[in-house]
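Supplementary notes for students who missed Thursday's class. We covered one full example, reproduced here. Read the sequence, then the structure, then the short commentary at the end.
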Amino acid sequence: MRRYAVYAVPGVGENDAAAALRLKAEVDTWYDRDDLRGLTIDARRYGFHATLAAPFHLAEGHTEAELLAVAAAFAAGRAPVTIPGPRPATMGSFRVLLPNGNQDGLNELAASAVRQFDDFRAPLNEADVRRRRAPHLTPRQRELFDRWGYPYVFDEFHFHLTLTDSVPAERTAEVDAALAQHFANVAGVDVPLSGITISVEPQPGAAFEILSVYPFAHQFALETA
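Structure (token representation):
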């Protein structure tokens, strides 16, 4: 059964800025590194992205065509935002690209996406509940999970672009050094985000694929301001 997700993926739009294209190219070559492939298995399966609305099965009564139409309208009514100066960083035991600077635009985009696409989200199945409702969740995260199907939304949301799976302690120095070197030419450079994507997992366990890209309105305003 197909799952869908609403992602932010810089560098996949037809008119994306050079900074977005460079970042996407660096991440692609990072995922292709033979020396680290054992640490990017899930990262590669989900694809380069920041989650706006976490993967979901379509709710009964809704169709893929409806989802794509709403995504197009949602994007058309928004202006571009900036991912300020993303750099490799640690998030728990994972390695990610984190913004460095004002993230109000990213936070508002994610909150709007969660609300906009919630009607398309089917109730979680038992496997989803087991995977997402981890025992370490805070009371607030459990509250968000019960209402929205995901614990890291709204005030618990932290925009990030995933680079690795969980990194074992004995490999942290190696991985962090590799990240610093690999992303040296793009780290700290503001990246325009000019749209959203709808990605799909065709069947359980398959790699997510970008189904459609939807540009924001006035997509060049960010570069010419």
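Commentary. Residues 220-225 have pLDDT under 50 and may be disordered. Strands lie at 3-8, 50-56, 81-83, 87-91, 94-98, 161-162, 191-193, 195-201, 209-215. If anything here is unclear, bring it to office hours.
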